[in-house]
User: What shape does this take?
Amino acid sequence: MNKKWDNNAIDRLRSMAGLASPEEIAAALDTTRCSVIQKASENRISLRTHRVKAVLPQPARERLECEARRRGLHIEDLARRIFIAVIRDDMFDAVLDDDLANMKPEQAAHAFIG
Assistant: This one.
């Protein structure tokens, strides 16, 4: 795990920063958490992530926990990956499958305003 930090590795670090934990970035780049933190600091890359708290019904939480275990992840890591995939790939309509999917943006905004 003696990582050579070339431009590609730094670009990948930059693209993952804020989306993945330092541990996840380290695993993806085949290096250590400390090395990721140090290289991010040297390149003025923020590793800060923003927390979102979600209250789930018990059956949904149990299903998420089961899937996280199957993938060898913590439930929070799986939830973060799901959120990021939905946002990155603009899958809101596909995932939610609600009436807003068929509305124009102006109509959808008005539906929330009243």
